[in-house]
Amino acid sequence: MKKTLFSLAVSACLGLIASPSMAKDEWPTDTVKIIVPFTAGGTTDIFARVIGDHLQKAFGKPFIIENVPGAGSVNGIAQVARSKPDGLTIGIASTSGLAINPQLRPDQVPYKPLKDLIPVTMFDKVPNVLVINSGKLPVKSVPELIEYLKKNPGKVAYGSSGVGTSQHLAAELFQQMTGTKITHVPYPGSARMVTDMIGGQVAMTFDNVPLLLPHVQGGKLTMLATATAKRAAFDEKVPAVAEFLPGFEAVAWHGFIAPAGTPKEIVDRLAAEVQACMKKPETIKKFSEAGAEAVATSPKEFADYIAAEMTKWKAVIEKANLQVK
Questions:
Q1: Residue span of the signal peptide, if any (predicted)?
Q2: Helix%, strand%, coil% for the chain, nearest 5
């Protein structure tokens, strides 16, 4: 009898010791919520659903999307940061939500990117492109544009989708690296800005490929270059700004994040499966057709990239003396 009781006690203790590991191995134990900090139907939302479908098949549990837009993606990311770190709430983060807004408007961002969140994996880079209205700017290349801007300081207007967006800071970085001065005209989103650009109210912009490409292909706007480190896969005939300004890069990127405290085993399993999805030919094709580059990084690589982006954009923000209240 004593031996039996002893055996049961030992088994119970072993069970208690093993249970945390077993719980991690069994993750997910229930439905996983993916918080997307953008509106439904947008490019990032569509990409999140593609990856969510893959995760659902891989893990055998539902992965559902919850759209929490607003405040330059801050609202959705803040909800992830506040969530229980059990792997059942994860989210999508972006350039603006992790690398820009926390430094541009720190009093309005209720989280520290690398303290309150765990980077899981980056899954895409969406090139910004330098596009002009040729009727307003008589130039055909980046060097010609730089020369024209230097001769006409402050006389050329560029549009952006708002103060503090990656498009706005791309233009600020361009000015800082070229010693030029361009007048900023911020809009409440890109759609109206593009309409005004076609109409000639603004002469140039840095914005995402999916938005601008149809207007370039239709002959209404002219693409001078991509804001990528090298020529972009969507059209390798288009030069990169970096060919004329070494080190210039201003892309929008997105990745998965989890609340701080989420077990490493869960983070690693999630990262591995997202990476597997991003390496599938059909995923690469789908992302490429939307003007995005499919990416698959480790958690550490993503964390290092975020840290580098925070340093880079902090310097741009401080040099431009940008303030948002």
A1: 1-23
A2: 50, 20, 30
Domains of the chain, earliest start first? 29-126+252-320 (3.40.190.150), 128-243 (3.40.190.10)
- As a residue count, the chain comes to 325
Quick: pLDDT tens for 91-137. 999 999 999 999 999 999 999 999 999 999 999 998 899 999 999 99
Is residue 142 within 8 Å of 246, Cβ to Cβ?
no
pLDDT digits (tens, 9 = 90+) for 115-124: 999 999 999 9
- Under 8 Å between Cβ of 87 and 258: yes
Under 8 Å between Cβ of 177 and 246: no
As beta bridge partners, residue 226 has: 129, 240
Q: CA-based angle 274:278:280, to the nearest 5? A: 120
| Encoded amino acid at 232, one letter | A
- Mind spelling out the 3-state secondary structure of 61-110? CCEEEEECCCCCCHHHHHHHHHCCCCCCEEEEEEHHHHHHHHHHCHHHCC
pLDDT exceeds 80 at position 19 = no
Token match 């980046």: residue? 142
Q: Which long-range contacts (CB under 8 A, 24 or more apart) does 43-46 make?
A: 43/126, 43/208, 43/210, 43/290, 43/292, 44/92, 44/94, 44/254, 46/290
3-state secondary structure of 310: helix
Beta bridge partners of 184: 158
Cis peptide before 28 (omega within 30 of 0): yes
What angle is formed at CA 211 by the lines to CA 208 and CA 212, rounded to 5 degrees?
Answer: 85
Answer for the pair 74, 165: CB distance below 8 angstroms, yes or no.
no
String of b and e for 208-235 (b: at least 16 CB within 10 Å)? bbbbbbebbeeebbbbbbbbbbebbbbe
Say what the pTM is. Answer: 0.84
Q: Which residues touch 263 (CB under 8 Å, ≥6 apart)?
A: 20, 24, 85, 87
d(C-alpha 208, C-alpha 167), whole Å:
8
Give the HSE-up count for residue 166: Cα atoms under 13 Å, Cβ half-sphere.
Answer: 25
